[in-house]
Amino acid sequence: MTAIRYKEYGAILLLTAIWGSAFAFIKIALESFSPGQLTLVRFVPVLPVFAIMMYHYRKRLRGLTKIEWLKLSIAGIAATTLYNLALNNGETHVGAGLASLVISLNPAFIIIGAYFMRGDRISKRFFMGLLISFVGVFVLTLARNGIGFDRTALSGISFILLCPFSWGLYTTLLHDAIDRVGVMAATAASSTIGIVTMLPAIPFAFDQSIPTNFIGWSCALYLGIFSTVIGYTIWSWLLQRRGAARTGMVVYLNVVWGLLFAGLFLGEVMTWQTVFGAILILSGVAVARRAG
User: Fold this and answer.
1) How far is residue 243's CA from residue 160's CA, in Å, rounded to a whole number?
2) Among 43, 74, 154, 243, which residue is least crowded by beta carbons within 10 Å?
3) Whole-model pTM above 0.85?
């Protein structure tokens, strides 16, 4: 095994640990911040980093057309604002481990986005895999006694299901720009635009008072530096080296880390519903990915 291959595996392990732990840190931070406040304190402080990256790649970006800039803008808003507001609101209702399971639908929704916006073909087997995954999601919404729905879980999962939709939209819209200017330039530009559009919301989000809880701010800082800047950078590097299909497989390790950190930091316990739902969701996503 070459040294480069070791670097790739090391990067995958680090990335999945960072992104898997994010679910637990979001849950902890939400004890101090509202979903909207947490979105802002996670992204606004790291705006200069993405802006500097965007300036570095300015020569490449000048060649983009107005339509491509529009796609970058929508992609940035989807990946920063929409995705994180949905996840933060969802985690006010459900546990971090369950949230990580629903997020594992991301690869399937990337394929759906490519189908609707780029005309990529997908087979009947893909829809079968997607159906299996949604049966798993349905299992997670059932009440503990198996009769009716757990309304709290249903509310949280409904929010979190917007995350795979947002990520699929982001990835699909970013595709053309990546071909033109590269992964790092496209990521920097879309992230900068997405964060800038958040700025007008700051006075409204903090109109009463600014939270002062040290643990809450520490979690928000971790999410901003590690999950956002470092995580996006590693993801971009892996995309360039391994391609989208192979890199997308890291979603399975995200779930493992997500469940592990949820149990370690939050004391969340695996129930039969979590296990059965996880098996169905991950199996369905695996089938859908192969078919897509």
Assistant:
1) 26
2) 243
3) yes
